[in-house]
Amino acid sequence: MAKVDSQKAPSKLGRHNMPPALEYMSGFGNHFETEAVANALPKGQNSPQKAPLGLYAEQLSGTAFSALRHENQRSWLYRIRPSVLHGKFQPIDNKLVRTRPFNAVPPTPNQLRWDALPIPQSPTDFIDGLVTVAGNGDTASMRGCATHIYAANKSMTDRYFFNSDGDFLFVPEQGPVRIHTELGVMEIAPGEIAVVQRGIKYRVELLEESARGYVLENYGPAFRLPYLSVIGANGLANPRDFLTPVAAFEKLEGNFKLVNKYQGQLFEAPIAHSPLDVVGWHGNYAPYKYDLKLFNTINSVSFDHPDPSIFTVLTSPSEMPGITNVDFVIFPPRWTVAEKTFRPPYYHRNAMSEYMGLVFGVYDAKAEGFVPGGGSLHNAMSAHGPDAATFERASNVELKPQYIGDTLAFMFESSLVFHPTEFSLKTETLQKDYLNCWADLKPNFKPNTGD
């Protein structure tokens, strides 16, 4: 297992150098145990009178204590200092981060689409570069979600972050990042995702000059794999492909800041040491990453275009069976072979609300205008579908087996209506002419005259 000690291998930032290859444990939702120093975990007890190696025992609970055993999420952390050791939190400027409920502007039935946000010119880390596009539900009632964009050109070097309102699902679009968490370290690049659950402390390090991507903040029940039902035992995302980091810790003292997102407000407290000082841990409440190339796509091999639910990677359920709080859905490289079928996504009005983004390539339902780093929002019952150029091409092309490659689009789909933020409706990246992509759709109806 990775042994990390900043005092043994200081970098120019005073932090540890990472080992040549990051180590992970695999399996979605498994109970893991890992230690960065031998014998950091107690044997046979969670909280002995004295924890090993002079460490402090601390439980991190992601669910209520009385949750069903198979749904209970918690981890025991054995750390150099307990989490209570920090200064007083004071509110700080939220900048462009918003948390539902917000109602500065009303939700709209209009179809919306944005270009990519520019990379900041002034030094901006992950927290300062976080911009809320839309949200629904209410974090206080643990229902709903929010969509954010991050654009940064600076690593978090002197401050740490944790979110008390929800889980963060990271979808990088430009530039890899290294996420240093209490429970270990994860690297993600475009084409991968990571989830850091509520309450877990971390900092985001850029591995290139800049980074940009999407974040889905889930206020509701934890993400899980969707039920496969008639698909059977295999397919879509397989549990073994989800990776959880092994224990790694920072042994640092200095003048740092700890930022907390709490009921929509950002707070900041001074802290005289790195809070990423967990030497060993065991449990099933831990961050994880997933390579989207490993998604086993299911699709039609005869005719017709199946519903996009077949592309669901992760789901957060609601209190109503069959209606999710929010789904994370991808449209990855894949073969399309359906005969006598209009192959791009069909024209559609949906009870669910859909925010879409593009990581790379071209989305097969749009000829232009939907760009990497950009996004679109089609709220409940707002009509959407292929633009005029795509409809014309797909209606007349010779149907042969086709590989749709070099593309990765995704969707955050929720049963609740997304409220756009005031910023997202006023930003210059909002495409004012999005509706024009359908303007050239003409009636092709030819009544049967009986001749």
Describe the structure.
It is a single chain. With about 450 residues, the protein is mainly beta. The protein contains two helices and 28 strands. It has helices at about 390-395, 420-425; strands spanning about 25, 30-35, 55-60, 75-80, 90, 110-115, 130-140, 145-150, 160-165, 165-175, 175-180, 185-190, 190-195, 200-205, 210-220, 245, 255-260, 265-275, 280-285, 290, 310-315, 325-330, 335, 355-360, 375-380, 400-405, 405-415, 420. The strands form seven sheets. Strands 20-13-10-15-8-7-28 form a seven-stranded antiparallel β-sheet. A hairpin with a 2-residue loop joins strand 11 and strand 12. Mean pLDDT is about 95; it is low at about 1-20.
- Looking at the overall shape, the CATH architecture of the largest domain is Sandwich
> Pairing-aware structural class of the strands and helices?
mainly beta
What's the tally of helices? 2
Briefly, what CATH class of the largest domain?
Mainly Beta
| Succession of helices and strands | EEEEEEEEEEEEEEEEEEEEEEEEEHEEEH
- Walk across the major sheet and give the strand order: 20-13-10-15-8-7-28
The shape, in one word, is: globular
The radius of gyration computed from the alpha-carbon positions, rounded to a whole number of angstroms, is 23 Å
Distance from first to last alpha carbon = 78 Å
CATH superfamily of the largest domain: Jelly Rolls
- DSSP helix fraction: under 10%
Oligomer: single chain
The averaged pLDDT comes out at: 93
